[in-house]
Amino acid sequence: MKKKILFLDLDGTLLTDNKEITPENMAAIQKATALGHAIVVCTGRPLISTARQVEKLGLTTPGCYAITSNGALIYNAHTRETIFYQGVHQDCIREAFEEAYKFHLHAQTYNQAGALCEYDTEEMKYYSTSTLLPYEVVSDVTKHLDGDPIKLLFIDLKDRSHLEAFRQHMEPWAKKNHLDIFFSCDEYLEFLPEGVNKGSGVRFISEYLNIPYEHTLAAGDAENDISMLKAVKLPCVMKNSRPDMYSYGAYITKRDNNHSGIAEIIEKFML
Description:
Layout: E1 5-8, H1 23-34, E2 38-42, H2 47-57, E3 65-68, E4 73-76, E5 81-85, H3 93-102, E6 106-111, E7 114-117, H4 122-131, E8 135-137, E9 152-155, H5 160-176, E10 179-185, E11 188-193, H6 198-208, E12 216-220, H7 226-230, E13 234-237, E14 251-252, H8 261-269
Parallel strand pairs: 1-2, 1-12, 2-3, 7-8, 12-13, 13-14
Antiparallel strand pairs: 3-4, 4-5, 6-7, 6-9, 9-11, 10-11
Helix pairs in contact: 1-8
């Protein structure tokens, strides 16, 4: 049997809406890894949050990896070592935050301890609770960084159109500063270094593990998964995705993220 590799988004894909892993998904992952297949978590979440999830999944044996922060940081889950990192240049942050405030958006970034923000908002509390990530409220995030941060994140929990307007406003600025902008879900708009995304992470890991393109699969549900879906041989899109995501999938699951759609993919294509 030839070894395959499955790249899995977390929120809206592997995890339920309650941020849990179904027993069926867990069992299918364990069967796949027991057969020698590789499972790589591929998420927009930062490392601290992702590391907790891979430990919960038991994906910490040799050959287990995680692509975090939409490709900005890649992690060997067995050795607990970072094998790739590229951050947003610190000089960009102040201007981006000030522009976001004009649109009445929550703005945050990250250091090694967790998330950093300048206002203790409803959005920050929601994000911290849903990702199990600690955060700190400071007067100026740029003074509390320990290097170039993994990304910038802007949140509106009630109206995606506010984020869309901000995105349109910031696109010329982002291009000038070599940044890419995309949605990771309807509420989250992310800024990452140009060319860094889940797709670049998929290619890095596939080459790192010497797994050919023909044996690659991915599953996702949101805009930040498009680059990942395009980078594999068999892209799978979750039933619960926005309808405009369906065109990126060679396979659309019959079950959604709340009903073990990942187990469906593993059973159909890997077991």
